[in-house]
Specification:
The complex is a heterodimer of chains A (341) and B (241).
Chain A (H helix, E strand, L loop, with lengths): L1 H29 L6 E10 L2 E11 L4 E5 L6 H8 L7 E6 L2 E2 L4 H7 E4 L11 H11 L4 H14 L15 H13 L5 E5 L7 H15 L3 E6 L2 H7 L2 E6 L2 E6 L1 H9 L3 E7 L2 H9 L4 E6 L6 E6 L6 H11 L2 E7 L4 H9 L1
Parallel strand pairs in A: 3-8, 3-9, 6-7, 7-8
Antiparallel strand pairs in A: 1-2, 1-4, 4-5, 9-10, 11-13, 11-14, 12-13
Chain B lengths: L1 H16 L2 H19 L4 H4 L5 H29 L1 H6 L5 H21 L2 H10 L4 H27 L4 H25 L2 H10 L1 H9 L5 H22 L7
Helix pairs in contact in B: 1-6, 2-4, 2-6, 4-6, 4-8, 4-9, 6-8, 6-12, 8-9, 8-11, 8-12, 9-10, 11-12
The chains are: A alpha/beta (341), B mainly alpha (241).
């Protein structure tokens, strides 16, 4: 009997070791150059309407990708197909090396998903609910309780843990939603509007949590709040009418949209002369007076040229005082508006 | 199999956490008890140590109660969107449907188990036909399974519980009585078909204590058909337009 008990203990010990140590390393060492999610020519039709239209992208392990787009752009539909909730009309999805149409069960095990509007079994207590989620996701019996306790701690649900979900405020429900998505320690997290309906403090908390998770896991999140995506994501995909209209980091997107350098200058001198002189510069394409700001000019340079040095030299030559020169950065809002209109 | 059990367990827990399970069990016991022991052609008037009266009553009470417990099983998940949550966990649509079926069946079985004192009482009063009684209970379980399967199917079609309830009753009433009525008004092969389709025919033969393969085939085919249809409806979201 003693021998058998020993064997059992060793087995559980090994299981725990495997679960706690090798899973995070797995993603970072072995599959470092393999994409975590590959989506090829994905299309979903509802009747005649194309909700998602021939989308292709891939996500590297450990990347935090933000889906950005107006309402009804196809963000949620894309997520639903990646999580194997819906089959696509055309196209191929591969998650962690498994193909969606062949091994949905394997993919579901590797994905933690927070659906839009965060549906929950509201008649259950938090602890029971998390336990149910863990068991359904195939978390080993011996570690279910440990995992539930960890999630309760991470998501700050400790004081509420015996409450029923329908007694919780929206912020706490959202945390329960995140906890159930992470309960089985998935490699990939897909979060559909994770901060909707939260107050500013909670938004910051959830963002930090996502950033923290993003160090180890692949995360896809969707939002129509630009600043949020900018704050949390390594990469942004802007989706509009079912198509990807922009793809890149927030900096590259801004540059793309900006194209030509834009500077705001204030020069102490006769305005019409200054304007004429500015227009005479080789690198300058357009000069406009700024509305509501007297003496300020908006100078747009020719493509791939910078006019800043020329403006300075001009002032030196004419003995004008250069009072102010500010580069104008395109805001992500502008990029968004430009590509989705 | 393990996943089915986990889902069934949660479902059952939610029946007992809300009042559904208690109301259902108490109402079932109250109704069947009242008509069996106190009212009309009660057990004492027949003058036989037999539970036929109880089986006759339960045939109808379960017919009405089962849609009431199955109506929320998938309709509520469709309404609240938790179906998306559940189907993106590592379970198949079949496991979800079978899990829900099992939970409902266990609830009905618990309600039926509460009537075992009736059996013991009657058995002490006289010489009861054990075969017929066991057959009767077996028939009730099979009949309930069929209506649960139909109820889950009705529930999968809609996100409104009341629609699910009425639809389950509507489908059920054909098996419960309409086919039986039609069987009497037709003769020959058509009459025979309707007679075979009627649940009453099979239930009565079982509650006489005769376990015939035809009755088993009848019930099992409708149970399986109902579950397969529910699974199909559940996976409708995967249909490629």
């Amino acid at each position: 009997m003693g021998y058998r008990n020993l064997l059992k203990n060793v087995k559980t010990l090994i299981k725990r070791l495997i679960f706690s140590v090798s899973v995070p390393n797995f993603a970072s060492e072995k599959f470092i150059d393999m994409a975590s999610i590959v989506v090829e020519n994905l299309t979903k039709k509802y009747g005649d309407q194309k909700a998602v239209d021939d989308i292709s992208f891939d996500v590297k392990p450990g990347e935090v990708v933000g889906f950005l787009g107006p309402n009804g752009a196809g963000k949620s539909t894309t997520m639903r197909m990646v999580t194997c909730y819906m089959a696509p009309t055309h196209g191929k999805i591969t998650v962690e090396g498994y193909q969606a149409d062949e091994h949905p069960e394997e993919i579901k095990k590797k994905i933690g998903y927070l659906p839009e509007n965060n549906p929950l079994y509201t008649d259950m207590a938090i602890i029971d609910y998390l336990k149910f989620c863990a068991e359904v996701q195939g978390v080993g019996k011996d570690i279910v309780n440990t995992r539930v306790r960890e999630m309760v701690d991470i998501c700050g649900l400790n004081l509420e843990r015996h409450k029923k979900i329908n007694e919780l405020s929206k912020g706490f429900r959202q945390r329960v939603g995140l906890a159930q998505a992470m309960i089985h320690d998935p490699e990939v997290l897909i979060l559909d509007e994770p901060t909707s309906g939260l107050d500013p403090n909670q938004i910051v908390e959830i963002r930090n949590l996502i950033k923290e998770l993003g160090k180890e896991k692949t995360v896809i999140l969707s939002s129509h709040i630009l600043s949020e995506v900018e704050a949390t994501c390594d990469r942004i995909l802007i989706i509009n009418r079912g198509k990807i209209v922009a793809d890149g980091t927030s900096d590259t997107l801004r540059q793309q949209a900006q194209g030509q350098e834009l500077v705001s200058v204030k020069i102490d001198g006769d305005e019409s002369r200054v304007k004429k002189a500015l227009l005479g510069l080789a690198s300058v394409e357009k000069v406009n007076e700024q509305e509501n700001r007297k003496g300020f000019f908006l100078v747009q340079s020719k493509p791939e040229l910078s006019s800043r040095k020329d403006i300075f030299d001009l002032c030196v030559k004419n003995k004008w005082y250069l009072l102010e020169m500010t580069g104008i950065e395109t805001k992500l809002e502008d990029v968004f508006r430009e590509v989705t209109n | 199999m393990k996943k089915i059990w986990i889902i069934a367990n949660r479902e059952l827990a939610s029946y007992f956490d809300s009042l559904i399970a208690y109301v259902m069990i108490i109402l079932f016991l109250g109704m069947s008890g009242f008509f069996t022991w106190l009212f009309g052609s009660s057990i004492f008037l027949i003058g036989q140590a037999s539970l036929q009266v109880f089986f006759g009553i339960s045939y109808w009470t379960l017919f009405f109660f089962i849609p009431a417990i199955t109506m929320r099983s998938l309709a509520e998940e469709n309404r609240s969107g938790t179906i998306e949550l559940l189907s993106t966990k590592a379970v198949s649509d079949r496991e979800i449907v079978v899990g829900k079926f099992l939970a409902n069946l266990i609830l009905v079985a618990i309600a039926l188990a509460c009537t075992i004192p009736y059996y013991i009482t009657v058995a002490t009063l006289g010489n009861i036909d054990h075969g017929a009684t066991i057959g009767g209970y077996f028939g009730l379980i099979l009949m309930s399974s069929m209506y649960i399967s139909i109820g889950i199917f009705a529930s999968s079609l809609t996100n409104n519980q009341i629609v699910a309830f009425l639809l389950a009753l509507f489908i059920g009433i054909f098996f419960q009585i309409l086919f039986d009525v039609m069987a009497t008004s037709f003769t020959g092969t058509v009459g025979g078909i309707f007679d075979f389709l009627s649940s009453r025919t099979h239930y009565e033969s079982l509650s006489r204590g005769v376990i015939d393969s035809r009755d088993l085939i009848y019930y099992f085919s409708f149970i399986i058909a109902g579950l397969l249809l529910s699974e199909t409806i559940l996976s409708k979201r995967n249909w490629q337009h």
